[in-house]
């Protein structure tokens, strides 16, 4: 008899617990009718849906709006008088879908486009950085755009004199001409021949410099034409 009583008590407690849990869930899901806003019709219209009669839940929508304002407007209000706010403007930092490699590639592309080279170094295959002085590149050859200046008293010009003539005119050998060595040559004649030969060498060097200048000008024009086509 004792065993049956204990079993019946257990069954009763289990069923009561079940019933209590169901009632709790029903009370939670149940909506207070005073919290509802009902739209009533003055006249019934045949064939018209009455979904708008359900109305809305103003308290829930109000609480939802308050939470939304706390997430957005409250943060802005707290940071109105703060001047030391840190805003991260790095590329791709605010995009959670990008990986670290993609962010790095975006920043590298932006840096390359920012420091885009000009026409003079567009076809330069070297990736080294150009040295600048007062914002101007030192690699620019401005000397090619100007006509070369010839120095009358250049040391290199003295070295480029006719070596054969100097070898043949050591010391007193200059008083004799190369064509006719037996015929004596006066000092004045020797000086005149020396002046003529130096002038001729100078004129030849000047002609070579002018040719080089003309070649550089034509090459520059051809390069400009090619760069516009490409």
From TrEMBL:
Keywords: Nucleus, Ribosome biogenesis, rRNA processing
Region Disordered: start-end pairs: 1-20, 112-145
UniProt xrefs under Pfam families: Nop14
Keyword Kinase: no
Compositional bias of kind Basic and acidic residues: 112-122
InterPro entries cross-referenced by the UniProt entry: Nop14
GO-annotated cellular components: Noc4p-Nop14p complex; small-subunit processome
Record GO biological process: maturation of SSU-rRNA
Basic residues bias: start-end ranges: 1-13
Protein's UniProt keywords contain Heme: no
Intracellular or extracellular location(s): Nucleus, Nucleolus
Membership in a protein family: Belongs to the NOP14 family.
Function according to Swiss-Prot or TrEMBL: Involved in nucleolar processing of pre-18S ribosomal RNA. Has a role in the nuclear export of 40S pre-ribosomal subunit to the cytoplasm.
Full protein name: Nucleolar protein 14
């Amino acid at each position: 008899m004792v065993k049956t009583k204990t079993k019946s008590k257990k069954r009763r407690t289990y069923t009561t617990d079940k019933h209590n849990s169901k009632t709790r869930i029903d009370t939670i899901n149940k909506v207070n009718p005073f919290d509802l806003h009902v739209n009533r019709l003055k006249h019934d219209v045949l064939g018209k849906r009455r979904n708008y009669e359900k109305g809305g839940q103003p308290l829930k929508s109000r609480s939802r709006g308050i939470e939304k304002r706390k997430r957005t407007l409250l943060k802005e209000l707290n940071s109105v008088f703060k001047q030391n706010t840190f805003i991260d403007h790095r590329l791709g930092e605010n995009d959670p879908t990008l990986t670290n490699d993609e962010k790095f590639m975006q920043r590298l592309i932006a840096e390359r486009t920012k420091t885009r080279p000009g026409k003079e170094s567009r076809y330069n295959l070297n990736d080294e950085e150009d040295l600048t002085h007062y914002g101007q590149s030192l690699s620019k050859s401005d000397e090619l755009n100007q006509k070369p200046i010839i120095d009358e008293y250049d040391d290199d010009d003295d070295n480029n004199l006719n070596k054969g003539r100097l070898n043949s005119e050591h010391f007193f050998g200059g008083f004799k001409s190369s064509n006719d060595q037996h015929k004596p040559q006066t000092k004045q004649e020797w000086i005149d021949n020396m002046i003529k030969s130096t002038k001729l060498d100078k004129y030849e060097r000047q002609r070579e410099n002018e040719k080089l200048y003309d070649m550089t000008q034509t090459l520059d024009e051809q390069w400009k034409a090619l760069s516009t086509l490409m």
